[in-house]
Amino acid sequence: MIIDVSQADVVSVYQALVGIVTPRPIAWVTTVDELGHVNLAPFSFFNTFGANPPVVVFSPTNRRDGSKKDTYLNLQAVPEFVINAAVEDLAEPMNATSAELPRSQNEAEFAGLELVPSTMVRPPRVAASPVHLECRMLQYISIGEGAIGANLVIGQVVLIHIDDAVLDTNGRVDPRKLRTVARLGGDFFCRSTDLFEMKRP
Ligand SMILES: Cc1cc2nc3c(=O)[nH]c(=O)nc-3n(C[C@H](O)[C@H](O)[C@H](O)COP(=O)(O)O)c2cc1C
Questions:
Q1: Ligand 1 neighbourhood includes 43 CB (under 6 angstroms)
Q2: Is the pTM of this model over 0.90?
């Protein structure tokens, strides 16, 4: 099959991309609006792109009607966010927080998740998640006005919380203990338990 992007509909292009670029890590993002209302939602258009300073990027895309998602709107008001690790034990509540609730409604409460305050940023952290990245937004770049247009949120990580229970004996995060889940195409997810090691040349 060949997809000529200039002729194809947006949803087909989206479905091809999210089926191909896999597995995608999941940023489970807490933000607040100007009144402090908390929002929590997962985003798999996500990765880290450098460590000096530490940079992460995720993309709350435009909705199908072209409108901006609550996470993006909150970041315009309060340019800080927390990335909570999406781990296997929290996969169901993580998925539940993708519900499209009204802007002032808290998805963490909706999914029965306890929140705890952050140290350096205003959005709180998901207590049950073993890792939190406290971030400040550096920049955002919107590409495309319509449905599923990208809104790249570029953030600097300012504080990293790691539960000692997911560390190995050298003080590094042990993937066998962290057990993140990742997103594939359609409704598929994968675990990070089928590991193999390779030494770098
Ligand atoms: C695992 C997972 C990954 C998702 N990744 C994205 C993403 O990268 N970008 C996006 O805009 N929506 C993504 N979504 C959908 C959003 O979570 C959903 O639209 C959510 O309601 C947005 O919340 P907000 O409007 O409160 O910001 C994802 C959903 C799930 C379950």
A1: yes
A2: yes
pLDDT in tens, 133-151: 999 999 999 999 999 999 9
Please choose from 22, 37, 43, 67 the residue to mutate so as to test ligand 1's pocket, defined by most ligand atoms within 8 A of CB.
Answer: 43
User: What span, in angstroms and rounded, lies between the C-alpha atoms of 142 and 144?
Assistant: 6
CATH of domain 10-182: 2.30.110.10
Indicate whether residue 48 lines ligand 1 (CB < 6 A).
no
How far is 162 from 167, CA to CA, in rounded Å? 8
> Cβ(132) to ligand 1 under 6 A?
no
The answer to whether 33 and 2 have CB atoms below 8 angstroms apart is: no
d(CA 170, CA 28): 27
181 lines ligand 1 (CB under 6 A): no
Beta strands in the chain (DSSP E): 24-25, 27-32, 38-43, 46-51, 54-58, 80-85, 115-116, 125-126, 131-143, 150-162, 181-183, 189-191
- What are the pLDDT digits (tens) for 39-57? 999 999 999 999 999 999 9
- Regarding the beta carbon of 153 and ligand 1, being less than 6 Å apart is answered no
